Amino acid sequence: MFALLIFVCSSKEKPTLGGTRIKTRKRNIAAPLDPAAFADAVVQIYLDNAGDLELVAKTVESSDLNFSRYGDTFFEVVFTGGRTQPGTIKADEGERHPYSIIECEANREAILPSVIYVQKILRRKPFLIKNLENVMRRFLQSLELFEENERKKLAIFTALAFSQKLSGLPPEAVFQPLLKDNLVGKGLVLPFITDFFKEYLVDNSLEDLISILKRGKMEDNLMDFFPSAKRSAEGFSEHFTKAGLVPLVEYNEKKIFEAKLKDMKSALTTLIAEGSDISEVIEIVKQRVKDANLPDIEVVRILWDVLMDAVQWSGKNQQQNANSALRQVKTWAKLLNSFCTSGKLELELIYKVQMQCYEDAKLMKLFPEIVRSLYDQDVLAEDTILHWFRKGTNPKGRQTLVKSLEPFIKWLEEAEEEE
After folding, report:
1. Are 374 and 336 in contact (CB under 8 A)?
2. Is 145 in contact with 89 (CB distance < 8 Å)?
3. Which of these, 50, 66, 153, 269, is most buried using a 10 Å CB contact count?
């Protein structure tokens, strides 16, 4: 027998499933997106205050405009006087004002008030910094769409923004967008960055500029601003010297020089570690010195540093340390001899030994033994050692080291008298 279950519903009731509630779906009603109306409102603020940026800032701060939604549009109005078409810098339909950064004179006196104005806005509305980044990134990636004079204004604004420490603007937001191949290749980036450097250095030091470049990950990549045909040390020096940025040229030359030294040291370290034939090492070092045009005095310093870095210092047994150092000197004496070719270079080698012993307490007592070994291997001449002993100019640890060398000096003088 089957049981028949009948559900009877009145006409006023709706059918339901047991234990289940029917939810009415609610529509999310959002305010319509209207950047055009927002842009017109901001433009009107400029017009109502006749471009007086102090009054404009006060009006903007007290307005109920939706800056969190239309932050990009706000900075488009600041830079160009009105809203721009999506993905371009072309003017869109709507009101415009004549007090924008692009419309003012291309000098700091005209542009600085706009920087201070933006700073005031950001202090009250710090969330807008991301919108400033967005707009600057878009404009900098579109430099070819600006006129030459307009690009200069953007460069001056950017330099003054960093000079005035515009709240939260990260250097990478400025430098990285400039590195688009087509912009660099067309020669648009180099004039921009040159104007930026010149303007920034009016109020700031080279060290400040280098700090910004470091934060923007550009300190070691300044050549990337140059078209490939001009990307050379000579091209760099010629361009920035002509632009009156000699300190930047000197800084870059120093960086290149340091890179050459580092490369030389790295190559020599590898050769020493691999136990390469000493004649082969000498030839390789000579060729690298020639190619990199390294000063002889720097080569001597590198040689000693690399040789001593390769020593396995025990740090415990003084005699073992002495044996290791002296064995290294004896093994590579021919290498040192090949580059200590004058009294001046020999004296520099003694100074290197002096500094190493001064900076590492466990080596202080090794100084006379190392000097004696260098003498025995014909790396250091007697006259050089006596000159250091009597007239050495480096004061660091000198008193102690001179005293420790006295027995050897006495021996040299007695041997000289006997001859």
Report:
1. yes
2. yes
3. 153
Compute the half-sphere exposure of residue 370: CA atoms within 13 Å on the CB side of its CA: 24
Task: For residues 405-409, give the mean pLDDT.
Answer: 93
User: Distance between CA atoms of 192 and 215, rounded to whole angstroms?
Assistant: 19
3-state secondary structure 114-132: HHHHHHHHHHHCHHHHHHH
Phi, psi of 138 (to 5 degrees): -65, -45
Q: Is the pTM of this model over 0.85?
A: no
* pLDDT for the residue 80: 94
Measured over the CA atoms of residue 32, residue 37, residue 39 and residue 45, the dihedral's sign is: negative
Q: Could you tell me which of 29, 24, 45 has the C-alpha nearest to residue 96?
A: 45
Residues whose CB is less than 8 angstroms from the CB of residue 232 and which lie 6 or more positions away in sequence, other chains included: 223
* pLDDT given for residue 25 in this prediction: 46
d(Cα 3, Cα 411) in Å, to the nearest integer? Answer: 126
CA-to-CA distance for 166 and 120, rounded, in angstroms? Answer: 9
Query: What was the pLDDT predicted at 417?
Result: 62
Measure the CA–CA gap between 374 and 369, rounded to whole angstroms. 9
The percent of residues in the chain predicted with pLDDT above 70, rounded, is: 89
pLDDT at residue 215 greater than cutoff 80:
yes
Please give the Cα distance from 35 to 33 (Å, whole number).
6
Helix (H, G, I), strand (E, B) or coil at 21: coil
CA 33 from centre of chain:
41
In the DSSP assignment, the letter for residue 91 is B
Would the pLDDT of 27 be above 60?
no
Rounded to the nearest integer, the mean pLDDT of the chain is: 87
CA atoms within 13 A on the CB side of 394: 19
317 pLDDT above the threshold of 90:
no
CA 192 to chain centre: 18
- Identify whether the C-beta of residue 156 lies closer than 8 Å to the C-beta of residue 199: yes
Name 46's Cβ contacts closer than 8 Å, sequence gap at least 6.
Answer: 56, 77, 97, 99
Q: How far apart are CA 131 and CA 71, in angstroms?
A: 5
